[in-house]
Amino acid sequence: MTLKEAVELQKEPFLQSLAESIRIRSVQEPPADGAPYGPNVRKCLDHALAVSKGLGFRTTDLDHQMGWCEFGEGDEMIAVLGHLDVVPEGEGWTFDPFGGEIRDGKIFGRGSMDDKGPTMAALYAMAALRDSGLPLKRRIRILFGTNEETGSNDMKYYKSHGGELPVMGFTPDGEYPVINGEKGIINVNYEADYTQTGDVRLTKISGGSAPNVVPASARAEITCPDDMKPQLMVRAAGCDRITCTETADGFEILANGVSAHGASPELGINAIGLLMDALVTLPLDEPLLGFVHFLSDHVGLESDGTSLGIALSDEPSGKLTFNLGTIQGDETSFLIRINYRYPVTFTYDDCAPICDAAFLNAGFLKVNETHKACLYLPEDCELVQTLLHVYADETGLPAIPKSIGGGTYAKAIPNVVAFGPIFPGDEVREHKPDEFMEIDRLMENVHIFAEALYRLAR
Prior knowledge:
With about 450 residues, the protein is an alpha+beta fold. About 30% of the residues lie in helices and about 25% in strands. The protein has eleven helices and 24 strands. The strands form six sheets. Strands 13-14-12-11-17-18-10-19 form an eight-stranded antiparallel β-sheet. Strands 1-2-6-3-7-22 form a six-stranded mixed β-sheet, with helices on both faces. Strands 4-5-24 form a three-stranded antiparallel β-sheet.
């Protein structure tokens, strides 16, 4: 039996198992006994392991944090890293978000694209490879993650508890042809503390929803004497994206920007930057005015960190991106949250100390930081070349690797890159209402995964 024939024989059981998995609402909940990410996530892991065992594979449940199934022999292991947890359903569905309904050649439900559909596709690709009888020199392991959407603590647990690392592998949780580069991501919070005694005072400031989203709006409330209001409002409203509205004891400044993802802030207009440009025109007290001047002069509407001295760039992944995502404060302090992403051939030390020093010298206090290091495998390495050739041979489409500003599950385990399930030009429906994946597309993924596993393990 050829590998392609073996794949087609898996279609019906594959779709049945996927529908069963989708019907489990595997959204993270408070931990329970034997269920670190909630009972439903545990139930979904139990289902995946039961399906794997039914297919004849060796299975392991690692303290209900995650699990895996395995096939083959050999000292070296090839891995597929998928996840069974999903984001909440949200609003706007016309289908049951946990119905696993198949209609018009599509399967609907949360997780159909992200990431139950691709994970089950990899499982049945491994079953087809086994049934084909093709000789292999390496073991193949499907890792069933359970915490990708809320921190990847499952894979931290796997690594810290002796989980074997693959010599090569892929996560079907990204895009084709291959994502071989993912920028490093730094989220950092800085606080500014101040006192105000003058006639013109900032009493409240807010803007943005998350550090990784370009803020679409930001506002500030100002108190001042009545006779100063007209002049100050004219000064602050320096562009058509700023609106000033008189209040009983002063005025409010509203900045209207354009939202965009933090991975591509150049596509948006930062409302907090606009607000800083407006506030800098006012006779505020020091050190508050100094903080505002710094943010206006060194951040403003920039999206690449130029004025902070961190405008890094490389050929594989392009420019560093910088986003001042949120601000929240009152008459005594404000807190800003920043998300920036550095190119794949650089490191944390090439940008973070410089950024921190600039804010520290301006009087800010660093209060929190998280960092995910970049991922980069050169285009000519064996893993990337193998996956590119599989994609080209299976689809007849150009196979050029890409680097992204976002992050995938590949960062959770070494020697892994993102490979599928989304094809160039296809709509990205993950995390959206009526999430679905076409049956034909799913089966294309099974064929591609089966061939990829064969070439990596042979």
